[in-house]
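We close this part of the discussion by returning to an individual protein. The encoding preserves chain order, so positions in sequence and tokens coincide. The sequence in question and its structure tokens are set out directly beneath this paragraph:

===
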Amino acid sequence: MYHTSDDNNTTAAVRFATLSVEDLAVLIDGKESKNTKVATKHAVKLFREYLDTKLVNSDFDNFSEDELNTRLKTFYAELRNKDGKVYKRTTLQSIRCGLRREVGTMLGTFR
């Protein structure tokens, strides 16, 4: 069966939507699940609390790469749950991923 150019244009129009800037922004904003956003917010809150208790400026957005690496390394090593016990590995991984998402978003490298 032969397709005419009109058939191809109709198929393309159905297959590829045209989104407004607002529709695209909503789509991009909704790419992360609600649970992912909550986990990221929790991880950032923990890190800021840690920095505050260590009497360090908690505005880590302005840290140099070296300072951020050093602070994160000690944060992960010293982090404990509310009972003072070491977090389970999976919980620590979730916190690390949340901070990676936040830092990547700040730097524009994580989308």
Q: What stands out?
A: Residues 32-107 form one domain. The mean pLDDT is 84. The CA atoms of residues 9 and 15 lie 10 Å apart.
